[in-house]
Amino acid sequence: MKAGVIALGAAALILPLAIAAAPDQAVEELKPVSAFAAIADKDSRAVAIFEEMGKVIQHPRCVNCHPRTDRPLSGDKQVPHITPVTRGPDGHGAPGLECSTCHGPRNVAFPNGTGSIPGHPEWHLAPKSMAWEGKSLGAICEQIKDRKRNGGKTLAQIAEHNAHDSLVGWGWNPGAGRQKVPGTQAEFGELTRAWIAAGAKCPKA
Question: CA–CA separation, 184 vs 162, rounded Å?
Fold first, then answer.
């Protein structure tokens, strides 16, 4: 326990420096669904739409909480989380050092305005079955569709998740010092529905 407190204290000193170093970057846009209407072949259209969705899915804001290990990633450079936290039994951290130890229900800006601590009421890691780090977009697509790995979600539930889940939506409101994911959550949801309507074909893994 003492070691955990020491690690937490050290991270509190380092974290502001790490987040303050994040550069301000222009936010990329997402193409609207109408941009893919001219693609006659449904499979090709579905693949093209999912590749556009990949701008969000493979962005650090999303992949950082879909790591291949038990430790989240941090920042645009996707370095291991500064505090040596682990996934824990349910993705919310280990007993005594849960995610909520530092991550509250909302983003908290540093007093000097250089960055922020991210927050959300359900701040946690995605399950290991949905690890995206280091995987191709095609492989991630197959994961998303696989009900054995995605928590039992149907395609309709995936569309709802992408369009309205507030933790997904955090990517568009990540707090000072972090780049937002491209477009808007509404646009991401529309692309998801269009991908499903076109047959939900995945890019090659």
Answer: 11
Contacts of 55 (CB under 8 A, 6+ apart): 28, 30, 181, 182, 183
What's the one-letter identity of residue 171? G
Segment 93-133, tens digit of pLDDT: 999 999 999 999 999 999 998 999 999 999 999 999 999 99
Nearest to 69 by CA among 132, 143, 114: 132
Element (H, E) at 141: helix 137-145
Q: How far apart are CA 104 and CA 61, in angstroms?
A: 17
List of E strands, 111-200: 116-117
This prediction's pTM: 0.87
**CB atoms closer than 10 angstroms to residue 113:** 10
% of residues, the chain, pLDDT over 70? 87
Tokens of 49: 């739409």
Tell me how crowded residue 130 is: count the other CB atoms within 10 A of its CB.
16
Cα torsion 154, 156, 159, 161: sign = negative
Whole-angstrom distance, CA of residue 145 vs CA of residue 151: 10
Res 25: pLDDT: 59
Element (H, E) at 108: strand 108-109
| Residue 48 tokens, joined | 């093209």
What pLDDT sits at residue 205? 80
